[in-house]
Design a protein that fits this description.
Rossmann fold, 8 strands, eight-stranded mixed sheet, 264 residues, globular, 33% helix, alpha/beta
Length: 264
């Protein structure tokens, strides 16, 4: 397998999503293909703005390699991203199950073929905002496939009931409730990031913005399952972080280092 200095675009005519999906394949420094890891990234169209290619060039781990696939979102993003089988109170995320099948059954075989790697040592997924929620759900639904997950300003507010229609936080946050049905998976890790300027909303008036409150709630649920801070859970909160690509591009190298260091 040769080093790719530029991302290689691939186009997949998806049966599940009923659209042509573009995915950009990036590869950093290479070693033994048997040591290669795979990272699937939702909202991959934003990686160019992040200078993701330059980030990968700087992430040097002798003898190791990373294949990163930036999956471009479609016009129906708010339906394709979400929680599998559990649309929100407005019916958004109704195609999350189809997106999951696209990733596993259509995208992954193409990645294996294009990279020439039959078996990746580790597999991870990540995403931003709603794409982060989708990545986290994939990791929880398929723990035997995804060893790690990164969520940047994740949309963990995703709820089954509108605030004005009897919303109860302990019951109606979809991902938090779903986590209570899951189990601990040894070897699985989670990287979660928020910014104190992500938003201004504060549903419960506790002085903590919802983006942070909801993410901390996810960490609480992960801990209940047996995952530990500093071991399986890494949390980054930026005092000057906003809900934007500029902020996420600052955190991405930290995430990549966290991800690649585990395979040293």
């Amino acid at each position: 397998m040769e080093k790719m200095l530029k991302p290689v675009p691939v186009f997949i005519d998806s049966v599940f999503l009923k659209r042509t999906v573009r995915a950009d394949v990036y590869t950093n420094s290479l070693g033994d293909p048997k040591s290669a890891s795979l990272l699937l990234i939702n909202d991959g169209q934003d990686l160019v703005t992040m200078n993701f290619e330059d980030m990968l060039q700087k992430m040097v781990y002798p003898g190791k390699s990373l294949v990163a696939v930036g999956i471009h979102a479609g016009e129906d993003r708010k339906q394709e991203y979400g929680v599998i089988g559990l649309p929100d109170y407005m019916g958004r995320g109704s195609k999350a199950g189809d997106y999951a099948r696209f990733m596993l059954e259509e995208l992954m075989p193409v990645v294996h073929q294009r990279s020439g790697i039959d078996q990746f040592q580790r597999k991870a997924c990540c995403g931003f905002s709603l794409g982060g929620l989708m990545a986290f759900d994939m990791a929880m639904e398929y723990p035997a496939i995804f060893n790690a997950c990164g969520v940047f300003s994740g949309s963990f507010w995703w709820r089954s009931k509108a605030l004005e229609e009897g919303y109860v936080e302990e019951r109606d946050r979809i991902m938090h409730a779903k986590l209570r049905t899951k189990r601990f998976t040894a070897g699985q890790r989670f990287f979660l990031q928020t910014g104190q300027l992500d938003e201004k909303a504060d549903r419960n008036k506790n002085g903590i913005i919802d983006s942070i409150d909801d993410t901390l709630g996810i960490i609480i649920e992960l801990k209940k399952l047996g995952f530990e801070d500093g071991k399986e859970i890494r949390y980054e909160e930026l005092p000057d972080g906003s809900h934007d690509i500029k902020t996420w591009s600052r955190v991405m190298p930290v995430f990549l280092d966290w991800l690649l260091a585990a395979s040293k």
